[in-house]
Design brief:
This protein is an alpha+beta fold and 248 residues long. The chain contains nine helices and nine strands. The chain has helices spanning 40-51, 90-98, 102-107, 112-127, 132-145, 189-193, 205-212, 220-229, 234-245; strands at 2-4, 11-13, 24-27, 30-34, 65-69, 72-78, 86-89, 156-160, 163-166. The strands form two sheets. The protein has a six-stranded mixed sheet with strand order 1-5-6-4-3-2. β5 and β6 (72-78) form a beta hairpin. α5 packs antiparallel against α7 (205-212) and α8 (220-229) runs antiparallel to α9.
Length: 248
């Protein structure tokens, strides 16, 4: 766990997710994020560590480290962009072309399947990148960690000298029931998991997962052994529950 002090001059973003304001810093090739409403830094750490027990390549996801930033909890990750790379979210890609909010456009479709086909087709036509497999991997992760903030600014591509490619999986902090205002801890994890609302194509993680199919292989036994050695927290316990109850 790191512990750093960072001057306000390194602040590069104070808004971003739809869940509210989150202060971000960039210093010495690291991105830093302060916790906003819950234990987002812990969730980022748990989610990215979980992916090390899968068959995904290390280049396919961002590793987050939990720590303290100016005495407050948060997380950090290494800058993964090359100097000439441009990070382009799917939201911005669509807005730049049509001047419209992609989420609102998708809400006009009757079914989840229509929304998915529309977005995949748009990205393919705009960038020559088929994001189907990218989405499959992300939806599988989100199903496991109960991510409630996978909006179109948390799906992205990287534009470099050789064109576009899918960005690594990033921004998993609003997961594992942290900061969920619907949670009632008078009930157990099983009951509270039912209160989670997914994004971006459906309110159901399971429904999206069943549509896309499994995005990666997971060594559940090794992951559970790691989690049992982690300090106790609600977020850790929720992830243990998910691994024991979700078949992927």
């Amino acid at each position: 766990m790191f512990d750093v002090k960072i001057d306000e001059g390194y602040i590069v973003q104070q808004s971003g997710t739809s869940e509210g304001t989150q202060i971000k810093y960039k210093k010495d090739n690291y991105w830093y994020k302060l916790d906003n409403k819950g234990s987002e830094g812990l969730c980022e750490y748990l989610a990215s560590k979980l992916l090390t027990f899968t068959d995904l390549k290390p280049s396919e996801y961002i590793i987050y480290e939990q720590g303290h930033i100016n005495g407050r909890y948060g997380c950090r990750s290494l800058d993964y962009l090359d100097e000439k790379d441009e990070f382009v979210t799917i939201y911005r890609l669509y807005y730049n072309e049509f001047g419209k909010n992609l989420a609102k456009v998708c809400s006009g479709f009757d079914t989840m399947e229509e929304r998915i086909r529309y977005v995949v087709k748009f990205v393919l036509e705009s960038t020559n990148v088929d994001i189907s497999d990218y989405l499959r991997k992300i939806i599988t992760l989100d199903y496991l960690i109960l991510n409630e903030d996978r909006h179109f600014n948390n799906l992205a591509l990287i534009c470099g000298d050789n064109g576009f490619k899918c960005a690594p999986i990033f921004d998993n902090g609003m997961s594992l029931l942290t900061a969920n205002q619907s949670v009632n801890w008078n009930f157990g994890i099983e009951e509270n998991v039912k209160r989670v609302v997914a994004r971006p194509f459906s309110g159901s993680h399971k429904k999206m997962f069943e549509y896309f199919g499994k995005g990666f292989e997971l060594d559940s036994n090794s992951a559970l052994k790691w989690l049992q050695a982690e300090p106790q927290s609600i977020e850790r316990d929720v992830l243990i529950y998910q691994l024991n109850n979700c078949s992927i």
